[in-house]
Design goal:
By secondary structure, the chain is of the alpha/beta class. It is built from 1 helix and 8 strands; from the N terminus they run H-E-E-E-E-E-E-E-E. Helix content is 23%, strand content 35%. Strands 2-1-4-6 form a 4-stranded mixed β-sheet, with no helix packed on it. The protein has a 4-stranded mixed β-sheet with strand order 3-8-7-5, with no helix packed on it. It is globular and about 40 Å long. Bound molecules: cobalt (II) ion (CO). Cobalt (II) ion (CO) binds next to loops.
Amino acid sequence: MSVAKSQSNTMRSALVAAALGAATAGLLAAVVLPGFAQTTPQPAAGAIAIDNFTFTPQTLTVKAGTTVTWTNRDDIPHGIASDNNAFAKSKALDTDDSYSFTFTTPGTYKYFCYVHPHMTGTIVVEPNG
Ligand code: CO
């Protein structure tokens, strides 16, 4: 093994050790100091984009308690309505308008655009924990 190669390996080992040390310190801090890794628990969020007459993602799977927000990225209005009135329908959403609903009960929620009923989507709400 050449001297240069040996030094290179030594340096790499030192770098790895330093990186591991930093990671370990972070882990310890996260365990020892509540709030180190995450200051305040944030409510879960799910996002659905309305773009080109399509809901994206078509099927969104979330945990119970998640607030789902639809945002209209089209330049014409859309509106959100539940197939079985499981949640209140939105007002007509103009460009960049949003509508949010918090899903607390597990189940499968089908919805559509009441301006263009061929636009459909599904939200699957799974038990939380
Ligand atoms: Co529409």
